[in-house]
Every structure is written in C-alpha cells, then in structure tokens.
Task: inverse folding
C-alpha cells in the first residue's frame, strides 16, 4: 500500500512544480500579452489600461495567488484572447480532440502491433520487408505533407471526404449529424493512423524478434503449446509492459502535437488552442492548457504503473512483498 | 509615382478585367445600392492555405482573401474557377534603425542606407511583383501621401559619394570610418526566422548585404518573433524589420516618429527625436481642419525624408479570389472584391437564391465588439455593426453612412463634432436606432475605459442629443476626432448595453434576445447588412440578411 501512495505523492509534487513553472516560465519568456499588440492606433496609455484590466500591473505574488486559486478550482479565469472563461474554451475543444485522437491512437497501435508481430514471425520474408519499408515511410514522412497529399487525393481529386471542418455547412440535423461528423473525422483519422502505425510496427518487431529468441519461448514451444499461444501469451506478454508505457505516455504528446492535423483539416481542437494561447501570451489559457496536459501526463503515468501491475506478475509479487 | 501607377494598371488589367461592376470614379453614391440580395452568409474557417486553395478550386468557397504567395495567385488564375482582384493597401514594411546610438544616430548614414536599398529588385525577386516597392512614410494610396518627398538618388555609388562628401572615409579593409575616426560596430538587423516570415528574413539579409556594399558592417539576425518584439520594446537592438498596417489618416506618423512616443511599448522604435519634426507632428495631430492636416502632413513627410529614421521597403497588395458566377461584385483600383459592398450587392448570375461562403483563415476568437482585437473577428463584426461615417471606396474621403451629414468646428475648448442620423434607422431586432443609443455607447466605452476605443473617446468633454443630431465636444482641437469617433466608435443598442454587467466577459452570442417580431436572436445586435444567427467555434459563423438594413430594398423593409 505504501508504494502506490508514494507514487501518488510523487505525482502531486510533480503537478505542484509544473503549476509553479507554468506561472513563472510564461512571465520569464520574452514578451507579454501586450507585446503582441502591434497597432499604431493603440497608444501606450491604452495598453496600460489593458494591462490594468488583465491584472498585469499587480505584484507578481498577488498574480501568483490568483493564478493558483483559479487553476486548483478548475475555473482557469478568462482567456485574454477570447474574453470567455478558459474552462468553456477547453470544453468546446476537448470532444473533437478526443474523438479524433483516441481512435487514432488505438487504431495505429493495434495495426502497428499486429504488423510488428507479423514481421517478427516472418523474418527475411517479403512480409517483413514490406512492414519495415512501410513502417519507415510512415514514421519518417512529415505529417503536413502526408495530410495535404491525402486531402488532395481523397477530398479534391476523388471527392470521397470533405475538405475541412467537422461538420457540413449548413449542418444536418438528427441522426444524419452523427454520420456527418464521422464522415468529417474519417480522413484526419486515416491520416493519423497512416502516420502513426509505423513507429509501433518497427518497435514491436524489434522487441518481438528479441523475445522470440528467448529460452522461455523455446521451452514453451518444446512443451508443445500451440504456436499462437506461444506468440501472444508468452512472447508478446513479455514485451507488454514497455508497450503499454509507450502507448500511455504518447497520449499527452499526441494531444499537443495535434496542431498540424487541426490546421490542415481546419478542426477545432485543443492542440491549436494551446499553440495560439502560447503565441499570444494568453496567460490564463496557456497556463490551463499546460496544466491539463501535465495532469494528463501524470494520470497516464499512474495508469501505466497500474497496468504494469496487471500485466507483469513480477511487479505484482514485488508489490505484495512490500 | 508614375511607374507605380503604370504597374498597378498593368496588374489590375491582368487580374481584374472580368468583373461585372466597375463603377466610374465619380463621386460615389451609396443610394444607388440596395441589399443584401442574398439571404444566407457563412463565414467558413479554413486555416491551412493549401486547404483554402483546394476548397476554392473545388467550388466550395465563394470568396477567399489575403492570397499572398505568388505561386497560389498563379495557380488560382490558371484554374479558371475564380476571378482575382488586386489592390494596393495601407501595409508598409520598413527597416528601422536605432537612432539612439552610434552609428545610426548619424542622419547621413541613414540616408546612405536608404540609397542602397534596392526595393524594386528585391520585391521583384521575392514577390514576383505582387508587392509594391515603397519609398515613402505613408502608403501611396493614402490620401495624404506626399509624392516625391523621398527621392534620393539610389545606388551604392551615390551613397558613397554622399558619405564621402560629408567627410566619411574607408579603411584599408574597405569598412566605413566616421569623420571623427570612429570605426563602425557590426549592425545586427533583427528579423523573424524564415520559418515564420521567410520574405522578411530575406529582406533583412538583402539589407545587410546592401549596407556591406558601402562599407557598413552588418548582418541579419533572425530570432524568435516574440523575443524580437520584446527586445525592440526595450530598445535593445541596432536595427530591425517592422511591418505595419496603417490607416488613411496620417496621424500614425505621430505614433511612429514623435519623441513622446519613445517610451516602452510606444511605437517610436527608431527613437528619432527632432524638435522640428516633433513640432510638425504635434501640429498634424492637433490640426483643426483638413486643410491644416494636409499642410502639416506634407511638412512632416518631407522632414522624415531628410531624417530617414526608417527605410521604407515595400507595401503588400491585397489579392482576393471570387468564384465565377456572381454578379454585382464591387471593386475599384483601391479595393479588392472582398468588401462590404460586394457582400450587399452580389447575386448569382443564373438568378435565384444561393448562400455565400466566405473564407476566414483563422478561428473567430470572440464576437464581443468591446474586447475583440483580431482582424478576422472584425471581418464578421464589420457586417453586423455600422459606423456613423464611412470611407468612399474610390477616393478614401469621408462619406455618409448612419449619419447623413456631419461637421467639425472649433469651439471654446476644442473640436465640436456634429452628426445627423439618417431617418428611420433600425437595429437588427426591429427597434429604432436613436441618437440616444449612440450617445450611450460612446459614454459607455468612455466610462469603462474600454481599451480598444480608449484613444478615440478619452478627450470627450460632453455629449448632447437633439432630435436626430448628436453633438460631441472635445477637450482639445484635432481634425482626427472626426474619424476616430465617426468612423471608429461603434453604435451599440442602449437596450442591450444596459443589461451588460461585465463587459469584458460579455459573450453576446450566448445570450438569447427577442426581436420585435418575436424571433429569437442573440445580444449581438447591430445595424449592419447581416444578422448573427449561429457560430460553431473554429468551423463557421452563420449570418442572415438584415431585413431592417438601411439599404434594404423597400419591399423587404
């Protein structure tokens, strides 16, 4: 029981540090929300008025107290860019991000794992060569290039998918709206899977090649166990903990890295909001977005720890000994 | 000036010869127009430039603005799906020198630097001609542009001669030496990195090479854009690149070059401080009438051409695409097709009713007119709200809008503005628009010190109303008060503004509001041609025709 508590305690410390860094790093960074206003018709006096209304003229310690209170209460304050509560802004964007990225992660990981295992089982064959080649291509092509290419092919030349957004204009009503939404998500989802499976495939293939050469796999085969069971229950299970870790820890990165997908497909998501908030020094919005990302990272880390316990009996035994 | 006009004519001929309405450049008569003709307008957000081009080519957009890459212009022109239009703008790109320290405190050096700036070649090479070389401190299309104020002989030879005549010499390595024997430190020209603004980085590099050609050690220094702005703000730089969007009024010259604006966050980045220039700019800012404004504007521009605190390089053109098949498109040599008059009068060539799909390249951040600062938000807000006076699209002179007449005089304390409203004006919810509404709006932004309108209203002494006439007394005399209030402050409905508790957090599009005819609108109520209906963040904004619009056809009224 002590180990999980220690981990949770450690995570809280990390969150506290991130919370403080979010505040100070943004203020140490060159520029401030007023620097971005480059308009000769906006006088220094008007800028000072704006600074006062945003509370930027108050002492840093006072600003910090307000900031911590807003973050911990999940109110996050008002966005300087939009004037709306940051919480509302995030709420508007999270559904699109989740609807796109979660299936993309699950599908690209599943495809990558399946192909990686296939390649490891067929060493030297055409299957392995195709997986290695396609995995490398998928892994190394810049996302904006692949996405624009897909957009040109499947939305412009062959008008199978829409060119932008998450809804038709004007939007359909009733059940058609859900179908319309899925239709709009299909191409960005496909692009993310195309670009995402390669890394998993290459990684799994390497791990599986090593695992399949281990003595316990040889032993299992010598015991006459079905080949399928040896592969999935013995070899694959042994590489599951690092795979889970990679999968879970890639989630926060995928969210913050979604900005290119959101830009190319004109989607309204968290990634773009994060970038714009950072660029315009929107302290409340950027602070909240980074804080939520930190929460997601810490949460995924804890989830990875819990998953370790589930999939690795050695960790379970160590835990019970403690 | 002649060559610029010739260039504009040529490009206009190439791009915009196919438009259906090109009214003569006589006095513009707004009463000849009526509309909006179309019922539905969608502002569609497509961010990526390539995706915008695909959507335009696929016929999913009717209007696309701000096309700036030459390759895109040519692609669209070849595609045959759209008509392109091009016009000069108020944009200006400059290289600014820090005149507070050696060597750029030397006027002669700045003049020599201006002489070696090969604007024409640079714009041709970098923009394939889709930009206008600029050698003035106001854009050429400004009604206050001073022709011929900045004509120094160009070229390295002329620059060397100027320096040599003033006692500057060159050492054995070919570097310039000041008359008092001081050698020049390396000038670093701050600019954004090429990943952010490739052409600006290139201009900084070309400028550095040009300076080196006359013996001034210089190099471009690309840095993060925010870092650059922060360093310029605290005056920690030798030289930097700047781009500005100016307005038709020359009053911006005061912001850029008056010594009182050389404060942190102020726009006198070069730090130029010249008593003669200060006086000319002060007179310009507080000019009592247009004639005086013209005189002082001309004087200030001539002095700037001598002092050369910044080097003008180029001005961007505005290029827009309009899908073929629309009649009633309005354009002049100063305005591309993506304007309000087009929006009002456009109709499908084949007749009938069609929704208009107008691209916006960025997400709409907020439609609260009191806090919005994004140009894209204002594209939408500009179709909802009107101003008292507007700008003639041919001459850039004032023209009637909500106010049918106006005047400016000098009273005991300062300027006195009077505006007389058109009769029978209505808000989009059907309620009548009165001068009390306008007086209340102006008082509201003044009392709340709303930053966006702060500079326009801070000098107001009193506001009086009488029938359809509004009388505003200012604390000082300035011709620009007329434009700042008449064209800058938005009339907002008093019956809505009275209910707003926190204007900063006000989200008018989220608050339902009943119109007189019982339909449910939102609190985003203006007098403009289109009424807000719905928006989906990052996707689109849906507007419908305002049946109460002042130019609405009688039948719909």
Result:
């Amino acid at each position: 029981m002590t180990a999980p508590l220690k981990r949770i305690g450690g995570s809280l410390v990390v969150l506290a540090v991130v919370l403080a860094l979010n505040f100070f790093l943004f203020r140490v960074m060159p520029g401030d929300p007023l620097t971005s206003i480059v308009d000769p018709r906006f006088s220094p006096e008007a800028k000072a008025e704006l600074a006062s209304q945003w509370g930027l003229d108050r002492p840093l310690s006072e600003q910090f107290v307000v900031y911590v209170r807003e973050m911990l209460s999940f109110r996050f304050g008002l966005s300087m860019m939009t004037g709306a509560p940051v919480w509302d802004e995030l709420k508007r964007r999270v559904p699109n991000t989740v609807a796109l990225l979660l299936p993309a992660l699950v599908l690209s990981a599943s495809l990558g794992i399946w192909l990686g295992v296939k390649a490891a089982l067929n060493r030297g064959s055409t299957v392995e060569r195709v997986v290695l080649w396609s995995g490398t291509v998928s892994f190394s092509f810049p996302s904006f290039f692949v996405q624009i290419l897909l957009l040109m092919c499947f939305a412009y030349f062959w008008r199978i998918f829409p060119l932008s957004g998450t809804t038709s204009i004007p939007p359909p009503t009733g059940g058609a709206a859900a179908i319309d939404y899925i239709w709009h998500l299909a191409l960005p989802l496909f692009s993310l899977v195309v670009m995402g499976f390669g890394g998993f495939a290459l990684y799994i293939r390497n791990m599986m090649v090593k695992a399949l050469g281990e003595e316990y796999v040889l032993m299992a085969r010598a015991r006459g166990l079905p080949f399928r069971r040896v592969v999935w229950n013995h070899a694959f299970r042994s590489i599951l903990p690092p795979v889970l870790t990679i999968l879970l820890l890639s989630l926060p990165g995928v969210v913050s890295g979604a900005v290119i997908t959101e830009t190319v497909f004109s989607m309204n998501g968290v990634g773009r909001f994060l970038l714009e908030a950072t660029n315009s020094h929107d302290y409340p919005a950027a602070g909240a977005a980074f804080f939520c990302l930190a929460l997601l990272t810490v949460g995924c880390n804890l989830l990875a720890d819990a998953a370790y316990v589930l999939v690795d009996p050695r960790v379970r035994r160590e835990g019970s000994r403690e | 000036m002649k060559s610029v006009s010739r260039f504009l004519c040529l490009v206009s001929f190439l791009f915009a010869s196919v438009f259906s309405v090109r009214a003569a450049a006589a006095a513009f008569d707004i009463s000849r127009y009526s509309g909006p003709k179309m019922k539905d307008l969608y502002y569609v957000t497509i961010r990526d430039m390539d995706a915008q081009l695909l959507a335009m080519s696929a016929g999913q957009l009717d209007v696309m603005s701000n096309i700036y890459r030459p390759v895109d212009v040519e692609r669209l022109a070849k595609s045959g799906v759209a008509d392109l239009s091009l016009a000069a703008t108020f944009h200006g790109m400059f290289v600014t020198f820090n005149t507070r320290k050696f060597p750029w405190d030397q006027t002669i050096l700045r003049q020599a630097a201006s002489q070696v700036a090969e604007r024409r070649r640079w714009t041709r090479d970098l923009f394939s001609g889709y930009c206008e070389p600029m050698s003035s401190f106001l854009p050429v299309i400004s009604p206050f542009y001073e022709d011929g104020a900045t004509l120094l002989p160009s070229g390295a030879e002329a620059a060397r001669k100027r320096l040599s005549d003033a006692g500057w010499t060159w050492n054995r390595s070919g570097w310039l030496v000041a008359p008092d024997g001081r050698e020049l430190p390396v000038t670093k020209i701050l600019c954004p990195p090429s990943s952010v603004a490739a052409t600006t980085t290139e201009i900084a590099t070309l400028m550095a090479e040009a300076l080196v050609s006359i013996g001034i050690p210089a190099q471009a220094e690309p840095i993060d854009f925010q870092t650059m702005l922060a360093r310029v703000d605290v005056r920690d730089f030798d030289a930097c690149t700047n781009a500005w969007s100016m307005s038709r009024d020359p009053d911006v010259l005061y912001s850029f070059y008056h010594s009182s604006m050389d404060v942190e966050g102020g726009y006198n980045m070069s730090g130029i401080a010249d008593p003669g220039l200060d006086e000319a700019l002060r007179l310009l800012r507080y000019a009592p009438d247009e004639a005086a404004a013209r005189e002082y504007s001309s004087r200030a521009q001539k002095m700037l051409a001598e002092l050369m605190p910044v080097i003008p390089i180029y001005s961007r053109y505005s290029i827009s695409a309009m899908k073929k098949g629309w009649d009633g498109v309005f354009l002049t040599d100063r305005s591309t097709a993506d304007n309000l008059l087009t929006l009002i009068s456009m109709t499908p060539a084949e007749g009938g009713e069609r929704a208009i799909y107008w691209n916006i390249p960025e997400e709409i951040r907020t439609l609260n007119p009191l806090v919005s600062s994004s140009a894209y938000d204002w594209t939408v807000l500009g179709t909802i709200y009107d101003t008292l006076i507007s700008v003639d699209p041919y001459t850039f002179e004032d023209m009637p809008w909500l106010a049918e007449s106006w005047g400016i005089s000098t009273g005991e304390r300062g300027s006195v503005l009077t505006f007389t409203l058109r009769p029978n004006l209505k808000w989009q919810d059907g309620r009548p628009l009165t001068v009390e509404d306008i007086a209340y709006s102006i008082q509201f932004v003044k009392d709340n010190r709303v930053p966006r309108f702060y500079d326009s209203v801070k000098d107001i002494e009193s506001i009086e109303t009488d029938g359809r006439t509004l009388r505003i007394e200012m604390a000082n005399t300035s011709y620009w008060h007329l434009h700042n209030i008449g064209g800058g402050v938005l009339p907002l409905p008093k019956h809505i503004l009275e209910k707003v508790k926190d204007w900063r957090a006000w989200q008018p599009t989220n608050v339902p509001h009943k119109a007189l005819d019982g339909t449910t609108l939102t609190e985003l109520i203006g007098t403009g041609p289109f009424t807000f209906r719905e928006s989906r963040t990052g996707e689109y904004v849906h507007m419908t025709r305002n049946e109460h619009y002042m130019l609405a056809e009688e039948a719909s009224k």
The mean pLDDT of chain A is 87. The CA atoms of residues 93 and 269 of chain A lie 5 Å apart.
